[in-house]
């Protein structure tokens, strides 16, 4: 029999033993970033947060979405899950931000380097098809329990769409446009930032939308390692067989997902 698992275990143990200081620094940095985000969201009164989301939905996605945002967020507040919703929002936006920070440059690199594209393609396939639960194991070993391992697992799971769609958007820019820019003396940097990225922006924004949605899909899974938020409410409903509690937590996740999806889609449509 071929025991691949024992080699992976040995590799993770080696990383844990030899890079413990690095993981500690990463834990403090990411943990502080998420905690700071949470503190900001907790400090803002709920009615101001709801008003900002309603206005954003109105300008970016229209009247129907703004009405749904108002009613949905008021329902979450009325159910008593406002704190958990803000925890989830902080975790999702923080994880998405880090995933985009890593994913967009990788997508640009894969579009401009054929060898990098060939190497990254199977890695991205692996990241997307691996069951999300598996990411929790190294995350807990590296960072312990809490929001940081949840964010770590979420970043790995949610990063592939933005890498793929950033690369696709740049590759879809007409060659004639880039050649015209080059003929006028544009440097590679100018071609990237003034020609390729602006024209690829709608596709990149679709990738951002998909990354945020995949981050939200990790909410309940991340709750299994004490990441908190609405996922913890759903998990309590499952473990304690409280159907109503689990259903209420699920409704909160759905409302948040629809709001973020419609707003990001609206931004992408306006850019087109």
Architecture overview:
This protein has a single domain (4-271), classed as MetI-like fold. α5 packs antiparallel against α6, α9 (160-171) runs antiparallel to α11 and α13 runs antiparallel to α14 (243-271). Helices cover 88% and strands 0% of the residues. It contains 14 helices and no strands. The mean pLDDT is 84. With 272 residues, the protein is mainly α. This is Glycine betaine ABC transport system, permease protein OpuAB. It is found in: Cell membrane.
The overall strand count is 0
* Main beta-sheet annotation: none
| Secondary-structure arrangement, i.e. CATH architecture | Orthogonal Bundle
SSE class: mainly alpha
Give the SSE order as H and E letters: HHHHHHHHHHHHHH
Amount of helix: over 70%
CATH class: Mainly Alpha
Number of domains: 1
| Radius of gyration from the alpha-carbon trace, in angstroms | 21 Å
Average pLDDT over all residues = 84
Number of H/I helices? 14
CATH superfamily: MetI-like
Form type: globular
At CATH level 3, the topology is MetI-like fold
* Poorly predicted runs of 5 or more residues: none
Beta-strand fraction estimate: under 5%
Keywords: Cell membrane, Membrane, Transmembrane, Transmembrane helix, Transport
Subcellular location: Cell membrane
Pfam family, one: BPD_transp_1
Organism: Bacteroides graminisolvens DSM 19988 = JCM 15093
């Amino acid at each position: 029999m071929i025991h691949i698992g024992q080699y992976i275990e040995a590799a993770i143990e080696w990383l844990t033993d030899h890079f413990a200081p690095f993981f500690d620094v990463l834990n403090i940095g990411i943990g502080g970033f998420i905690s700071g985000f949470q503190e900001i969201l907790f400090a803002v009164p709920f009615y101001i947060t709801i008003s900002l989301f309603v206005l954003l939905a109105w300008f970016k996605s229209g009247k129907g979405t703004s009405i749904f945002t108002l009613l949905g967020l008021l329902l979450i507040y009325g159910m008593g899950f406002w704190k958990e919703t803000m925890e989830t929002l902080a975790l999702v936006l923080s994880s998405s931000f880090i995933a985009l920070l890593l994913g967009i440059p990788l997508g640009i690199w894969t579009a401009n380097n054929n060898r990098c594209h060939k190497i990254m393609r199977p890695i991205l396939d692996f990241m997307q098809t691996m069951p999300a639960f598996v990411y929790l194991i190294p995350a807990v070993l590296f960072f312990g329990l809490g929001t940081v391992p949840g964010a770590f697992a979420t970043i790995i799971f949610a990063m592939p769409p933005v890498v793929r769609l950033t690369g696709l958007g740049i590759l879809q820019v007409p060659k004639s446009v880039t050649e015209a820019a080059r003929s006028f003396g544009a440097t590679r940097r100018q071609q990237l930032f003034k020609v390729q990225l602006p024209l690829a922006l709608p596709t990149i924004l679709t990738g951002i939308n998909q990354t945020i949605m995949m981050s939200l899909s990790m909410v309940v899974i991340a709750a299994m390692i004490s990441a908190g938020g609405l996922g913890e409410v759903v998990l309590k409903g499952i473990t304690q067989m409280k159907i109503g509690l689990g259903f209420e937590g699920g409704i909160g996740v759905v409302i948040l997902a629809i709001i973020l999806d419609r707003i990001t889609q609206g931004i992408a449509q306006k850019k087109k």
